[in-house]
Amino acid sequence: MDFDDERPQQQVTGVVIITLPPSDNPSFGKTITAFTLANDVLPQSLTTQEPDQVLPTTRVVSSPPPSSQSPQLGFSFSGFFSENPRKLLGFLGVSLFALLLYSSCFSSTFVELRNSNDNDDDDKPQSFIFPLYHKLGAAHLELKLGRFVDVVDKENLVVSINGGAMETKMVNKLVAANSVVMDSSATILPVRGNVYPDGLYFTYMLLGNPQRPYFLDIDTGSDLTWIQCDAPCSSCAKGANPLYKPTKVNIVASGDSMCMEVQKNQKPQICETCQQCDYEIEYADRSSSLGVLAKDKLHLVTANGSITNLDVVFGCAYDQQGILLNTLSKTDGILGLSKAKVSLPSQLASKGIINNVVGHCLATDVTSGGYMFLGDDFVPNWGMSWVPMLGSPSIEFYHTQLVKINYGSSSLSLGAKDSDKARVVFDSGSSYTYFTKQAYAELVSSLSEVSELGFIKDASDPTLPVCWRAPFPIRTIMDVKKYFKTLTLQFGSKWWIISKKFHIPPEGYLIISFPVMQKKGNVCLGILDGSNVHDGSTFILGDISLRGQLVVYDNEKQKIGWGPSGCGKPSRFKSLPSFEG
C-alpha cells in the first residue's frame, strides 16, 4: 500500500489480507481486503493481479472519512485509549470481569481435557478410568480413616502358603488416632455404590494370571490395597468373588522396599527368620484386616484399548474382623488411594505408568455409580476450584485448610485448636461427613428452625443420631430440599469474593430413611459428631458430601480440586467400561 508523500504527518494503522486463489483453480485470482483505523481519509488503495488471471471485485473496508469541518469526530482506538488511559484501564477491567463471569457461569467441568491432542505419544504417562458401582443391599455405615503407628508385637503369627509355614513377629498396624466406634490412554474405573443404605462405592480390577475380577471399595483414606485371600483364610467375609490364592512366588519378602515402607514407623526389631512381610490394618470403625504383602500382575486397559500388565504390591488379607465381615458381602477388599508410597496410584507413578493424580466422581443418581481415574488425562482445564494440600511427613491423607463454614448465611464455629482455621480431610472411605464437636452442635442448633415448619425430631429412628418426621409424606430428598439450606465451606481466604468454596446442598448432607412400621419416610442428618474420630479437631468430607462433584487429588502439584458434575462419564468417553456384579 502506497501513501501520499505530501501528507507525511498523518498516522494510519491498518491490516491488509491477501487471499491466494486455490491451487487447482488459479483463475479465481487474488482477493485483497484492507482494514484500517485512522483519523484521516484512507488514500486510494491499489491492487494488482496476475496478467493471465481475472481478479474478482476487491472489497476494501476502511474507517469512514471524517468531516473536514469537524476533524475531531474521526475515531481511532489507539488515539482514543492513548488520550484516555483511565478509560483503557476501565475497558480492560470490564473485559476481564466479563471473562471471569463467563467462565464461572458457563464453563462445564468437562469443557477441555489436558493433553487431549497427545494421544499418539506412546512415551508419555497414561491414564486409566474405572466405573464405580453401588453396594446394593449392604446397609452399613463405614469409616476407614487411618495412619501408620508403632506396632505391638504378636507372638505365634503363622501363615501357611502352599503348605509351607512361615513365622514372624513383625506386624504392622494401621490405626486411626483416638479411633472409636461411632455411637450411632487414559484408565477409568466404573464405580458403583451409594451412601444409604449401601454404605460405600466400589469398583473392580483384574488381577493375577489368569486374570480374575475383584470388587474393591474405593478409599482415599487408606494406603494399602488388599484383597481377601486363601492363605488359608482364617476369617473372611463371603465376598463377591472367589478368594485370591497366592503361591510362594507371589509373597513379598521382608526385605523388600515396599515392606520397609509399610513398616517404616515401627520400632526396629530383629527377625532373622522372616520370609514374608506381615501387616495388620485397624480402621477408625475398629474393623481390622490381617495379612501378608503379595505381588502379582495387574491388568489395566487404557482409553485407546491397549492393555498394560504390571506387577503391583497389595495385601493378601486372610483375617478380617469387625464390620468388615459384613461390609465385604458385596466386595472383595479395599482399594487404597492415599498419597502413601504403597498406594496403587503411587506405585503406578513410580513406574512411570501414570502421573500421580487420582480423581473420582460419585453420582447422586442411584442408578449410576459414577467413575474414578488414575492419571491426569481426565482432569478438566476449566470449571475446577483448586486448593493446596497440607503436607505432613506422617499423614498421608488428602487434607487442606478450612477458614470458614456457613449454614445458609449463618457462620458456624470451626471448633478447632486454632479458632481461625481447621483441617478438612477428603475421604471416599467414609460413608458420612464429620464435623468438629462445636461445629456439629451449632449446625444441629441451626437446623432446629425446621421445627417451625412442622418437622418433628424422631428419637425412635435408629438410622442416624438426628432424624425428623416430616408433616407430609416424603420419598426423596427433593421433597424436603427447599426447607433446608446449603452448607458452604470456605478455603484460602475469609474474603468471600476471592476464596474457594465447596458447596454442600441439602442432598449432600441429608438422607431419607424408612423406619419399620412407618408408612412414610423420615429425613435424617448425614453429618455426625467427629469429636471421637481422628484427632477430634478435623472435618471429614465423606461420600454423602462428595457426590455430584468431580474431585481430583493432584499429588504432582500438591493440590486438591473439585467441580460440579453429573458423573455420567468424561466427555472423551462414549460409555464407561462395565461388568456384571
Low-confidence parts? 1-8, 38-77, 102-120, 146-185
CATH topology of the domain at 187-370: Cathepsin D, subunit A, domain 1
Radius of gyration: 31 Å
CATH architecture of the domain at 187-370: Beta Barrel
Number of strands: 32
User: What global shape is seen?
Assistant: globular
The chain-level structural class is: mainly beta
CATH class of the domain at 187-370: Mainly Beta
Considering DSSP H and I runs of 4 or more, what fraction of the residues is helical?
10-25%
Task: Say which CATH homologous superfamily of the domain at 187-370 is assigned.
Answer: Acid Proteases
What's the end-to-end separation, in Å? 73 Å
Mean pLDDT over the residues: 75
Q: Largest sheet at a glance?
A: 16 strands, mixed
Number of helices: 7
Q: Give the percentage of residues in beta strands.
A: 25-35%
Active site: 219, 427
Domain Peptidase A1: 201-563
Organism: Gossypium gossypioides (Mexican cotton)
Family: Belongs to the peptidase A1 family.
